[in-house]
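job 3f2a | input accepted
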Amino acid sequence: MTNFTSSAHLHHNDHDEHHDHDDHDDHDHYLVPFLLIFTFAIVEAIGSWYTGSLALLSDAGHMFTDVAALSLAWLAAALGKNPKIARHKSGVTYAELAVSIINALTMLAVVVYVVVEAVHRFKQPQAVQGLGLIIIATLGLMVNLIVAQQLHHQTLHHGESLNNKAAFLHVMGDLLGSVTAVAAGLVIYFTGWMPIDPILSLFISVLLLVFTLNLLGDIVKTLRATKAV
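job 3f2a | predicted structure (229 res):
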């Protein structure tokens, strides 16, 4: 697994002449994903009410956590440019650590919510509009692919860090959620089998849990690490 502590430390030791350009790039690469996710989170929230889909509702909820994740990641990146800011002994700023921990906790909260709601749907099935679900989820998938590409470019350009990985984690979870929602819509549209919606919602919650535990593992390793000499 990549040593995110070293990457973050190296990121803060780039050539001085590139700092102004890097600051601008950091803001650009977080601003575009933020605007895309924020806009489509609203679209999915309305769409989930219209279609009655739990998969779409969970994806909309997760998109709203992405909005917070991207905002905090942008803040951590901006603060990380300040050489005087307080840092953990690993070399990572405390702001970056805080962002990563908050993101991991919100991910866990989303997982719990989806599981509880899915169990409720099994007990009280709800009709879902398959065609509307397919259309909205497909648009969401396209948005998440664009955002994932933006964050991947950010990683290649500046190096992988905890705050960038946390934001990317949220977006990847959204991407998987969109794929799941599309699949649920296709099954419902062609077969009318409604239980597929909560079933696939549970599936995506397991995947999100795995990714979140991976992030928590990276955070623990960073907290235990010491700054490379």
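job 3f2a | The first helix runs from residue 4 to 11.
job 3f2a | closed
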